[in-house]
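1st attempt posting a full record on here, be nice pls
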Amino acid sequence: MTMPEPILVVGAYGYRNTGDEAILAGLLTTLAGRRVTVVSRSPAETSALHGVAAMGFPGAVAALRRHRTVLIGGGGLFGRDMGRIGRLLPLYGLLAAALGRTLVVDGVGLDGDMSGVNRLLVRRLLRS
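the predicted structure (as tokens):
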């Protein structure tokens, strides 16, 4: 799949979860040499750990203006235990698609126990 640059990577990064950080490291390896920014709970830590530009969640919507691709990646993002990020991420992805951004979902597990609304949003997101 072609991913126009710059690429915005969004997931549960910066929470000090070893598994999520390993998934991010793998994604960044596949994106080596590309212009990438990661949305993170702890941007300075993510930048230092992975050697990549990072930004906080509050700027993620505005970043859609500057990024041509949104890559949603890593772990069980759409499960009940993901809290607010798990509920908002499908909406964020749908917004990116509505704005004409290339949307990629990679390495994401789906929790069969999702709420009805979230299940509907995730289904719509994956179809876009």
